[in-house]
Every structure is written in C-alpha cells, then in structure tokens.
Amino acid sequence: IIEKLKGVSREKRKMVFKTAIALSDGKNTICEIGVINGFVAEEPRGENGFGFDEIFELENGKTLAEILEEEKNKISARKIALEKIKEKLIEQELEK
Predict the structure, then answer these.
(1) Contact, 58 vs 64, CB < 8 A?
(2) Which candidate, 16, 34, 26, places its Cα nearest to that of 81?
(3) What is the rounded end-to-end Cα distance, in angstroms, of the chain?
(4) 3-state secondary structure the chain
(5) Whether 58 contacts 15, CB under 8 Å
(6) Tell me: the pLDDT tens digits for 31-86?
C-alpha cells in the first residue's frame, strides 16, 4: 500500500477503519459500527501494534503503533462499536 501511494499527498491517502459488532440473544439482535479515520503513513512506524497499526496514521501524525495501548483502546473502532451496543442495552433496560 505504501509503495503504491508513494508521492501521493497526505490528503489523498485517507484511510477508514470500520468494525461491525453484533450481539444477539436469539430473538433480538443489536448491530453497531465503530469508525476511526486516518491516513496511510508514508512509511511503517511504531512498535505497539499489529496488522495495519504501523501504517494507520491518526490526525495527530502518529500511527496506531506509536501510541500507548491505553490510548489506542480509548479511540479504537471496536470500543466505539461496543459503547454503542452498551448504550442500546441500557436504553432497552430503561424501556422495561
């Protein structure tokens, strides 16, 4: 990916990561999506990650592999999707 985008401006190297998570009790299903936006880095950077973390550059210029695990967990697409599911579960409980 990096090689194919060599020389392409940062603005044109936008990258989106989406996670879909579903929770079902066999009768009802909740499905939510978490999204984080970033850019394809010009080169792999960082030691704290796996997969695409070394090339997923955040708005602040750091890759996911360059930030601490605690920071990454706060902004992760998985966390965003799970938080949305949690909110729906709380809403359902309040409606009972």
Answers:
(1) yes
(2) 34
(3) 49
(4) CCCCCCCCCHHHCEEEEEEEEEEECCCCEEEEEEEEEEEECCCCCCCCCCCCCCCEECCCCCEHHHCCHHHHHHHCHHHHHHHHHHHHHHHHHHHC
(5) no
(6) 999 999 999 999 999 998 888 999 999 999 999 999 999 999 999 999 999 999 99
